[in-house]
Amino acid sequence: MAPTVIAFDLYGTILSTDSIVKTLAGFFGDEQAKTIATQARRYQLEYTWRISTMGRYRSFSELTRWSFRHAAAELGEKLSPEQEEAVMSAYDGLDAFPEVEAALNLVAKTPSIEAYVFSNGTESMIASSLSTSPSLAKSSGSNIFPASRIVSVDPLKVFKPDRRTYDHFAKVVNLESQNEKIWLVSSNPFDVVGARAAGWRSVWVNRNAQVGWVDGLSGAVGLEPTMIVKGVDEAVERIIKNNRE
């Protein structure tokens, strides 16, 4: 039986971008830290879409740096050079969501799964995040993403959900023209819909039980997640079950 290829989004899916709040709180207090973290994530993603549409490129790391500057400035604050470096260092060590350890342990115990990280981050940024994340360092599944299992969009100089990024991944895993054999696991609706548009199967990780799938663009183009789950562990379990049926 051919292996099951799963592409895991990293930031916001495996790693919690909210875990940066602790570092920011040391500079601005709890309330402002939460606001800056939330807005920085918003601008980080917005920048990737805007710059791709413009036909320009800056690395995800550089856009992340500017997103924190933007978010702080909106509150009348400014990160000093030392504070900025502390924030970027903390971003390299984001903590994983609670259920991720169980998910990766299940992947490690399932030889039929070929797991990859598929991210907007640069390869060095991804590798650093995987190696320094506190909870991933303790997980027995933390070594399932060696360098050969990290796929970055950086060589393309364009960001997800550009169709070229999904085609690039398919080429890396030798599944060109077989996109339907690839699973994406992501908490980001734009990524989920982008994967579906490329012919992949996708699992949306919805950690907000009060709100279901409400993505308007999904409705406009008629593309929805293949599955909706509450956590990454459930995503892996259901993909395994699906492939056995």
From TrEMBL:
State the organism of origin: Trichoderma citrinoviride
What the entry lists under Pfam families is as follows:
Hydrolase (PF00702)
Keywords from UniProt, A to Z, are: Hydrolase
In alphabetical order, the GO MF annotations are: hydrolase activity, acting on acid halide bonds, in C-halide compounds; phosphatase activity
Q: What is this protein called?
A: Haloacid dehalogenase
InterPro entries from the UniProt entry: 2-HAD (IPR006328), HAD-like_sf (IPR036412), HAD-SF_hydro_IA (IPR006439), HAD_sf (IPR023214), PGP-like_dom2 (IPR023198), S-2-haloacid_dehalogenase (IPR051540)
The upper taxonomy is:
Eukaryota, Fungi, Dikarya, Ascomycota, Pezizomycotina
The UniProt entry's sequence similarity note says: Belongs to the HAD-like hydrolase superfamily. S-2-haloalkanoic acid dehalogenase family.
> Gene3D superfamilies, alphabetically?
HAD superfamily/HAD-like, Putative phosphatase, domain 2
Q: Which domain of life is it from?
A: Eukaryota
